[in-house]
């Protein structure tokens, strides 16, 4: 399990370094996640691998990872209230874009697995 956590953290670290070096406006964690996805696809790691077990443990306790975000919302509620319309439009817009991206990805993966 420790090796799995190390995989996750190393991929995130590499993503953070790449973003800082390239001066890209993308979160380093997202780049690290894409890197991890590429490594997992390349190595064809099974469901019993250390990184999968570590990810399962993190997913089991995911509700704890939302506590800092909730505290941030409570701390900045007056700022959010003042900019409610742009924040709401950003939330709805990002939700729609995410929904379209997941639908598109699921369609492509469905075609790929059917072939």
From TrEMBL:
It is a multi-pass membrane protein. This is CidA/LrgA family protein. It comes from the Bacteria. The chain crosses the membrane at residues 25-45, 57-78, 84-109. The keyword Ribosomal protein does not apply. It holds the Pfam family LrgA. Keywords: Cell membrane, Membrane, Transmembrane, Transmembrane helix. The keyword RNA-binding does not apply. It comes from Nocardioides fonticola. InterPro entries: LrgA/CidA (IPR005538). The lineage of its organism: Bacteria, Bacillati, Actinomycetota, Actinomycetes, Propionibacteriales. It is found in: Cell membrane.
